[in-house]
Each structure stands twice: as structure tokens, then as C-alpha cells.
Amino acid sequence: MNKKIVPAIIAKNQNELNERLSKVIKYVDLVQLDVMDNRFVPNTSLFFDFSLSKTKCQFETHLMVQNPEDWIERNGNKVDTVLVHYESCNNPKKIIEQVKTAGKKIGFVLNPKTPISKLTGFLNDIDQVLIMTVNPGFYGSPFLPEMLEKISNLRKLKPKLDIEVDGGITDKTIGLVDKVGANMFVSGSYIVKSDNVEEAINSLKEIIGD
Fold first, then answer.
1. pLDDT for 152-200, tens place per residue?
2. CA distances (Å), origin 170, targets 4, 18, 110
């Protein structure tokens, strides 16, 4: 399966978004935009009418918001993939249909305490699953090693599914999640706050053999 390093961007305003994107888009072909509404998680990011410059990069958005349907309706056209927390879904089938009708990819996100059994009925209808390896909402939260079994079980259940991990992914942890079956690796502070972004990305690629 294709392996990807995916920088995660948190931004309070357009200037911060532009600055952080400019650091990473030369080195990757996919960037994750973290959207937070200060309700689903206790932080705010990209919860404004942002714009994205044309680039070779694709964008996925990780929606840490209540009422994700509203966000998708307003902003879904700006990104290529929409990742919705299962915990925020009142009607998962409706969200899948909403995103696919717009011609975008759809994935569900699972918080650490949410079992993969919640997604069993939807795995054939979605493009990827994002497993949180931290409790979501902040750069730099500690990696939860107990999530490794969850990743492994999902890989056994769906051998060809894109399985993404997000939270505490650094040069110390990426090898662990790679070994148990993840193939997409979101890294926030390790990349974005690095003094040398290219070097940080390459160090992760080297560990997973990409």
C-alpha cells in the first residue's frame, strides 16, 4: 500500500494558515487541515472562512466539530477528502452520501475510546479510517501505545483500507504504527514546529521505508 507522511496544520487565522502551509507544501503531496470549533474539542482552528492557494498538494480536513454537515455544506468544496469524527455523527450514512455526492472522499475518525466495531457497517462505503493515537485537540499531546492493537485489528478486518493515524507521531512512534498496519501518518508539531521541516519529513519517511 502507498505510505504517506501527512503534515497537520492548525491555524487561528488566514495569515497563520498561509505561513504554515508554505513551510510544508514543497515536500508532500497531501496536507491535513485541522478544523476545531471549541465545542467538540477545547480549541479553535480553521473555524473561519479560509481560502487555499492552488498547489500540487491535495488537502484533507479533519473535522473536530459538532454538526459536521454544516461545515461540509459551507466548505467541503475546498478540500479533496473529508474526515468526520464518528462521535459527532447523528447519521453516518447521510454524511457519507453528502460527501460522495459532492465528489469528495470520505473517512471516519475514531477517538481513542471509540471501538472499531462502531464502523463495521460502513467500511465498504468509506475511503479511509483515521485512528486517533491521542485525545484530540492540541499539537503535542502524548502518544497512546494502547491504540496499536486497534490499528492492527482494523488492518486484519480490511486489508486494503487506507488506515491513517494521528497524534504524537514522531521519529520515536511512527515505526510502531507502521509495523501494525497504518499506511498514512499525520504529524503536527514534529513537522510544523521543526527548525528544518524537510529534514523532519525525510526522517519519518526513512523510518517507514518510503
1. 999 999 999 999 999 999 999 999 999 999 999 999 999 999 999 999 9
2. 14, 23, 20
Overall number of domains in the chain: 1
- Which secondary structure element, helix H or strand E, spans residue 118, and what is its range? none
- Supply the CATH number for residue 61's domain: 3.20.20.70
Q: Which of 34, 127, 162, 178 is catalytic?
A: 34
Whether 37 is catalytic: no
Catalytic pick among 125, 166, 178, 195 = 166
Summarize pLDDT for 17-45 with one digit per residue, the tens.
999 999 999 999 999 999 999 999 999 99
Q: Is 166 a catalytic residue?
A: yes
Q: In which domain, by residue range, is 14 found?
A: 4-208
Cβ pair 142, 134 in contact under 8 A: yes
In sequence order, the β-bridge partners of residue 184 are: 4, 164
- pLDDT, position 142: 85
